[in-house]
């Protein structure tokens, strides 16, 4: 007869093997399966002239020892192959503000170009001085609680970029004040959906969640449950949000059921 202790040891060993196997897969395989996603994003009040505008969105590259500049360059190559009309970078270009990777990260992003420009915001892992300076040196406009106005096909598009630490509704409202046309809020943290909806912002682009990075069967993205949108498209009132799963990893260099992505958004008018 097989003892109860032997059965328990077998179950424990099987579970441990499954965890190790999943971790190995997440490190060696899935975190390297960078894919291009092409969602159709409905935007309330979008003018007919902007129907079909393609926005490249790259975020959370986390250039580091676990995600070297070559990883970032691969994402850049994939995005440039898509030829988007404009490009937005969503923050977290390094991990924990590691200055050793600030310049390599910016250099890897330097080849990005688009007809209507390349714009960036900062994430919680980016410092407020060296990272924006490195990006700006390569012609990337960094929006730190700032707004820039574009004219695209005769229509006004106001890009509003806020820092991760800008959270108060009044502070966000002050940056948006005076915006017109189609307003796009660039906010690293998806929790800014609450403020965006209160301000009737049509579109918000965010990252930060990594899509959960590890998504478990049944339990889902446990590490990202506090966010209103973990990945993909979400809506609140008249506001649409798109959250990218990003390119890199943080805390542990593993992705499970959550491959990294480069996003190319096609904007469409929101049906009445």
Question: Would you give an account of this structure?
Answer:
By secondary structure, this protein is of the alpha/beta class. The chain has a single domain, classed as Purple Acid Phosphatase, chain A, domain 2 (4-Layer Sandwich). The protein is built from 6 helices and 13 strands. Strands 1, 2, 3, 4, 5, 6 and 13 form a 7-stranded mixed sheet that branches. It has a 6-stranded mixed sheet with strand order 7-8-9-10-12-11. The longest helix has 25 residues. The radius of gyration is 20 Å and the shape is globular. About 7% of the residues have low confidence.
Give a quick precis of the structure.
This protein is of the alpha/beta class and 272 residues long. It has 6 helices and 13 strands.
